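Check out one such.
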Amino acid sequence: MVSDSRSRVVGSLRETWSEFERATRALTEAQWSFRPTPEGWTLAELAEHLALIEGSTLRIITGRMVEAEASSELIATTEGKDSLIERRVPDRSRRVEAPESLKPTGRWPRPELAVAAFGESRRAAIRWYETTPLDLRRYVAPHPFLGPIDGWQWGLFLAEHLRRHLFQIAELLGAPGYPTE
């Protein structure tokens, strides 16, 4: 079960990261700053949000979550959430408001720096998931929208959260007025 979970999580993390790198490669300033609607995020803001959530989640899964194994009762509350995460997190039919601390505010002077910060955190997450000896089904931390999820589910969340925003990027690229240069 651990090797299945490991390959599933690591594969999803690698796949979505690769798609994100392709989507953000060689963009112009006009493309980075295009706002599709008054309330919509730009690609630069999306990159910042993704860098923030990636770093924040990495601190949860490698720190607080693994301080102690969860009780069997808490572990039981996470059963079946793998498929829930894979189904609900990337679903853009429901709007989800990001917590204030994870909203873009222009923390990086250039969007490429946010993409690089995201990459550093994603690389560290992949390395951690590839090498951890822990049975991550036994470690649980609360997610603000999903409730208690285990360590492998946190990895799936990272991949599916990025997938959600990859769909958003595709929508943005197809929006009327998106600059071609």
